[in-house]
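Journal club prep, shared notes

We agreed each person brings one worked example of a sequence with its structure written out as tokens. Mine is Vacuolar protein-sorting-associated protein 28. I'm keeping it raw so we can talk through how to read the token line rather than staring at a rendered picture. Sequence first:
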Amino acid sequence: MEVRLYNNIHERDMYDRMADLYSILISLERLEYAFIRDYIPATEYQSLCYKLISQYRATWKLLEHEFSAPQDFVTKYKVNCQAALNRIQVGVPATVEHGAFGTNSSSAANKRSVAEATEKFITLMDAVKLNQVSVDTLHPRLGDLLESLNNVDGLNRNSTCRTKLLEWLKQLNSMRASDQLDEDQARQFMFEI
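Then the structure, token by token:
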């Protein structure tokens, strides 16, 4: 006897999207463990992680009406993917979140890294001053800033600066791309930058 999961095209599409979400979560989980165990180079990990996070966001947008949160999907279908959920919550690869500190061996390379980080700070501050406070504008710029800070020698990975920036990155990541910071949030964001 044949068992059908769906009765119409809408239900079939929903099951296809759920299958896509499942495969993205499992792939991201495996990628996280491959990186942790040093089975994959950091540059390859970073590009694949960005790709999977983007695919997750696109897929989740289509399933938001079915589940109130990703954790609901994971619980309902018993998917073991805590590392993937953590990476999705942060919204950037571990190489950006934690960095690879002390990689610049020469003074000239470190000076270049400091200049790039300064440029990213200024760009981010200018965006806020110009009232470009939508999540899809600020999130990539904040990720770029964190990535450039990771290349600066001598910067403590637990510095207040990095901690505050990571908190804002997580907050932006929990919002929709079309959301905007209100006036108080934008002011606090600018103050902390």
